Amino acid sequence: MRLSPETCSRARLARDQRFDGLFYTAVKTTRIFCRPICPARAPLEKNVEYFRTAAEAATAGYRPCRRCRPDAAPGSPAWGLVGTTVQRALALMRSEREGLSVESLAARLGISSRYLRRLFNEHLGMSPLQYWQVERVMFALGLLRETRLPVAQVAFEAGFNSTRRFNAVFREICHRTPSDVRQDGQAGTAVSGGVRFYLPYRPPFDWRQLLAFFRVRALRGVEEVIDGVYLRSFCLEGGEPGVLRVSDDTAAHRLVVELDSGDARGLYVLNQRLRRLFDLDSDTGEIGQVLSADPLLAQQLQRLPGVRLPGAWDPFEYALRAILGQQISVAAATTIAGRLVERYGGRFVDTSGREWRLFPAAGQLAGVDFEGLGVTRARAATLRAFVAAALEGQVDFTETDLERWCSQLTALPGIGDWTAQYIAMRGLSLPDAFPASDLGILQALGEGGDRATPGAARARAEQWRPWRSYGALLLWQSLQTGDNK
After folding, report:
1. Exposed e or buried b for every residue in 342-354, given b needs 16+ CB within 10 A?
2. Do 470 and 309 touch, CB atoms closer than 8 A?
3. How far is Cα 255 from Cα 111, in angstroms, rounded to an integer?
4. In this predicted structure, what is the pLDDT of residue 186?
5. Quick one: pLDDT at residue 485?
6. Active-site annotation holds for 38
7. 34 is catalytic
8. Element at 337 (helix H, strand E)
9. Domains in the chain: boundaries
10. Do 166 and 178 contact (CB within 8 A), yes or no?
């Protein structure tokens, strides 16, 4: 959402929770920047300026407020704010624990480092390094306040391989040292064998609906939804495997993440994966405003406000599951994926003695024939081709351009537009994907008992751009409730 100064002014004076994380208020007299919900006395309008991100405010020379804690704000939605190349750059930067040099980042994007710097300055008003430093320091602030991890480990988790360098950058941005923040108290409680941290979101947030979606698709031994809690096995950064538990703290507008692992590392990457999995950074107000123009979607949004797009823990994993699930039911696809995990995935036992499985990575499936899983020979050949393409770099899981992504996927044998669009929607969390030939979508849009045609579905969905993925999800939900009738 592109916010005007007038809108920002009204939102901060009202301390409107819906705008938390969408912009930041910087006070010229104190050189402090705040969230729009900051409880401090509101400064005069002539003494403030507004920034879209914490990184922009910090780069302009402002330091984060200690009361409202900008590090604890929901993330800023990226859609529409920057060009696709910058979006891809940000995705690459966030997929790695350590920082990438501008040269290596530009090389992976297929552009010159000079052009990449120019794009960042044009769209974000800062260099790639400045953006990386502020985002990682904000992440470190949260770890210092919410966990008992040693400062050296916090520095490592934030992507700094030198504690000295971390301290210098931290002090430059926050005008305090990491030790000062830790001495403030409020350090989080430890979890047996792991850590606990929090993922803030903007309300409304339909946790129950998200869990219902994940429950029917949960892989045995890998995922579980029970008593309002999502559980998942994981293994990151070459560390030991572990289990994460995610629950909803509705009153505080945040998810609570508890890790059961003897070697908790890769927390930044894990944080990013969970934010995408539960779609925590979406602007539900903007999405609802666009989709409500369609009477059918407006009815569904009224019944279930705060729509979130269920994401994927890992794009490769989800793409493989989507290919397995072509032209069969959700239950059958989940059963077959479970067989794949049981045959090729790793196993470990958590601290309670329970056995878990890990979904196999692409390297573990190299050369696998996929026979005996219950798929056709043609489908097994498609799976082999997809794994080989992923290993050879022919499939780019950081792609943010929908057309380029679909071109990559449909070039592989046995993969059509429906599969490519569906993977883009849930595996890559692209907001404007739309599997127009999906039977559920056609049924939901049909009239008089007849299904709509794919062409008619595409035409109707044009008015939903750039949020067609959310429109598709609402249509599927309407079939469960009969609201499409």
Report:
1. eebbeebebeeee
2. yes
3. 38
4. 54
5. 31
6. no
7. yes
8. helix 330-344
9. 5-54, 84-183, 196-279, 315-481
10. yes
HSE at residue 431, side-chain half, CA atoms within 13 A, is 22
State pLDDT tens for residues 4-19: 999 999 999 999 988 9
Q: In this structure, what token pair is assigned to residue 138? A: 């904000």
| 3-state percent breakdown (helix, strand, coil) of the chain, nearest 5 | 50, 10, 40
Catalytic residue among 8, 20, 34, 174: 34
CA distance 96 to 82: 21
Distances in Å between the alpha carbon of 477 and those of 260, 293, 325, 422?
33, 18, 19, 16
What element of type H or E holds 232? Answer: strand 229-234
What CATH fold (topology level) applies to the domain 5-54?
DNA Methylphosphotriester Repair Domain (3.40.10)
Q: 315-481: CATH homologous superfamily?
A: Hypothetical protein; domain 2 (1.10.340.30)
Contacts of 282 (CB under 8 A, 6+ apart): 77, 308, 309, 431
Q: Which of 206, 281, 438, 483 is catalytic?
A: 438
Architecture of domain 84-183: Orthogonal Bundle (1.10)
**pTM: predicted TM-score of the whole model, two decimal places:** 0.90
Helix/strand/coil for 136: helix
The residue ranges of the chain whose pLDDT is under 50 are 192, 482-485
Q: Which residue has the tokens 């003897």?
A: 262
What pLDDT score was predicted for residue 189? 54
Distance CA 132, CA 143 (A): 17
Contacts of 467 (CB under 8 A, 6+ apart): 287, 290, 291, 431, 432
**Cα torsion 237, 239, 242, 246: sign:** negative
Identify the pLDDT of residue 483. 46
pLDDT of residue 341: 96
Cis preceding linkage at 74, omega within 30: no
Q: What is the pLDDT of residues 416-434, one digit of tens each?
A: 999 999 999 999 999 999 9
What CATH number was assigned to the domain covering residues 196-279?
3.30.310.20
What is the Cα–Cα distance from 461 to 442, expressed in whole angstroms? 12
Predicted local distance difference test score (pLDDT) of residue 449: 78
- DSSP letter for 23, please: B
